[in-house]
Amino acid sequence: MSQHRYVLRYFDIQGLCETLRLLLTASGVDWTEEHPEWPKEKTNQPMGHLPVLVVSNTDGKPELVLSETLVIERYIAREYGLLPADNLAAARQEQLRDQLHDVGSTHIEYMHSTGERSAELVTKFEQDATCLVSMHVAALRHNGNNGHYFGDALSYVDLAAYAFFKFFSNAGPRSLKSKIGLLDYTRIPEVSKLMAAVEASSLLEPYFTAEKVNGPRLATRFK
Amino acid sequence: MTSYIFRYFNTIGYGETTRLLLTAAKVEWTEEHPEWPQEKPNQPFGRLPVLIEQSDDGSPDLVLSESTTIERYLARTYGFLPMDPRQAALQEQFRDRQNDVLLTFREYMSVPDSAKEGVYAKFEDLLDRVISAHTELLRENGNTGYSFGSTLSYTDMALYTFMKLFFIQIVQYSEAMPKLFKAKLTPELAKLATTVEADPLLVTYVSQKGSLAEYVLPK
């Protein structure tokens, strides 16, 4: 059992943090979430933004404060064996995860864009989402279409993909409705299988059964 | 023997840190500039950069995509990123923060004039924080010109590229941003730039590619 305690500081939304919430749950560590008053607490964060992860020892003394979503994800994933120690194996997962993040970022950019830039982003999103699905289906197939990207156990990219596809299955009113269908996992058998495998994982039981734990997460919002 | 092919555009962009890593690693490497967008469907993720690692022992090529994944892979393999997870995470943070600044710059360029002021303020705030974080790190390390210890690290190369991006590439699209950067440049950052350029692992590369001295040193 880990000797550390983790506090995730973020907003009370899915936002950028669902993969991280899944990672923290799957790792079995002692973790809680704080929703700092914003923008009041901005100056108290290392880089003026969230998320921030505070790692403390059992006495509650902070040992490490990290910011940058993907850095935090990789740190937890490596510490708790959800990302392999082997450099190459880790890189294979990271590139898939980075691609999910890129397409997610393009969509966020689209939601804030106007005019010509919006039109450019629609094309970009369509191209990148199409490529993403093709790459991820190939990876899942290459692994024997067993509901996991690598091996036969839950790993970092499984969780990142779950959060990604769940997000797009229920994206809000400003979302790119005309192209979201490209990411409809109910029409992609390999990804559907992945989603089911993640939902069935005993490591994630606390995440999927919680009524309202530390914020309205995917599991509780879309049940 | 391992060798690499680096596929990217002939620009600094998201590729220069990888070029520095490949050079500092002292491996055999070449660069390809695929015709774009014709070659887009031939890339695994439909994007550049792509790194191809080849061995002469008959094993299949490794093909990696995603610029920071490529960087971290090389940095870890060739000892420019520590094995210790916390030390590595601290270095990786610096790199990711730079991406935030660049994304905000892109936002600034693409929003209508009426919205530019707000984005400029956001950009300036982020830039302040990034410069201040790096300056503090360099000071804590005794202002040797290196971010960690007394040898070249991933953070050093990424920061050098970040500066190069502003003074050489971004200046082609906006004069305001590089001017702002120059005004905020601290002596510690200037020293890092000259130290990285003088490092034995990179000195030849820099002599071919050009120095940042005229941009970072006081006139």
TrEMBL record, chain A:
GO MF term list: glutathione transferase activity
SUPFAM superfamilies, sorted: GST C-terminal domain-like, Thioredoxin-like
Domain GST N-terminal residues, every copy: 4-84
GO BP term, pick one: glutathione metabolic process
InterPro entries attached to this UniProt entry: Glutathione-S-Trfase_C_sf, Glutathione_S-Trfase, Glutathione_S-Trfase_N, GST_C, GST_superfamily, Thioredoxin-like_sf
Cited PANTHER family: GLUTATHIONE S-TRANSFERASE
Protein's name in the database: GST N-terminal domain-containing protein
Lineage: Eukaryota, Fungi, Fungi incertae sedis, Zoopagomycota, Kickxellomycotina
From TrEMBL, chain B:
GO process terms (BP): glutathione metabolic process
Positions of the GST N-terminal domain: 2-82
Occurrences of domain GST C-terminal (ranges): 84-219
Any single Pfam family the record assigns to this protein: GST_N
GO molecular function, one term: glutathione transferase activity
Highest taxon above the source species: Eukaryota
SUPFAM superfamilies (alphabetical): GST C-terminal domain-like (SSF47616), Thioredoxin-like (SSF52833)
PANTHER family: GLUTATHIONE S-TRANSFERASE (PTHR11571)
UniProt name for this protein: Glutathione S-transferase
Species: Coemansia aciculifera
Organism placement in taxonomy: Eukaryota, Fungi, Fungi incertae sedis, Zoopagomycota, Kickxellomycotina
